[in-house]
Design brief:
By secondary structure, chain A is mostly beta strands. Chain A contains no helices and 11 strands. In chain A, a hairpin with a 4-residue loop joins strand 7 and strand 8. Classes of the chains: A mainly beta (120), B mainly beta (107).
């Protein structure tokens, strides 16, 4: 059974760096073909893909946010970490991590999401 | 970037109705399309992948079709638990992009 869960701060100040951790079970990020992505959703708005990391450490980022994002994995801990620098109130959103369906850049298992508010 | 445009933005329907939601890509994406269902306060749930393949555990009243730039999600007979927001997502190329969502409401 695949499960994912996001953790991190619920409130960050403008200009601060956000660090979110996705802890997962039921699969290994050292297995060929596996990937984990991050997607966010501002309140009342649509989904926005942020980043994706593959089993071989290949990484893909949203071009509009690439300069602010870093995605890493810790295979031994079954974790994926997303950092986003220079947070702004417009970054207020629910952040989801999700398991990439094998051989496709879409997501078949999602975490419950974590709401991050950016405010001074 | 490939833009995904859904229509309608919202639709009202009754239990038992047949509903169709469309998604158009700004350029061809073959069959690299997914449909998700999202209920308030919950994470999205994958319904359809590869444009027409039903994800395991999803009721057969959901179906998807299309290729290239035009896609549809059809719910053959609406059930009370189907009232939610639906999103399409292209999986053809990076950056991955979602549609703006279609809210399905009870009439």
């Amino acid at each position: 059974q695949i499960t994912l869960k996001e953790s991190g701060p619920t409130l960050v100040k403008p200009t601060q760096t956000l660090t979110l951790t996705c802890t997962f079970s039921g699969f290994s990020l050292s297995t060929s073909g596996v990937g984990v992505g991050w997607i966010r959703q501002p309140p009342g708005k649509a989904l926005e893909w942020l980043a994706l990391i593959y089993w071989d450490d290949d990484k893909r980022y949203s071009p509009s946010l690439k300069s602010r994002l870093t995605i890493t994995k810790d295979t031994s801990k079954n974790q994926v970490v997303l950092t986003m620098t220079n947070m702004d109130p417009v970054d207020t959103a629910t952040y989801y991590c999700a398991h990439r369906r094998t051989a496709m850049a879409l997501f078949d298992y999602w975490g419950q999401g974590t709401l991050v508010t950016v405010s001074s | 970037d490939i833009q995904m445009t859904q229509s309608p933005s919202s639709v009202s329907a009754s239990v038992g109705d047949r509903v169709t939601i469309t998604c158009r890509a700004s350029q061809g994406i073959s069959s690299w399309l997914a449909w998700y269902q999202q209920k308030p306060g919950k994470a999205p749930k994958l319904l359809i992948y590869a444009a027409s393949s039903l994800q395991s555990g999803v009721p057969s009243r959901f179906s998807g079709s299309g290729s290239g730039t035009d896609f549809t999600l059809t719910i053959s007979s609406l059930q009370p638990e189907d009232f939610a927001t639906y999103y399409c997502q292209q999986a053809n190329s990076f950056p991955l992009t979602f549609g703006q969502g279609t809210r399905l409401e009870i009439k």
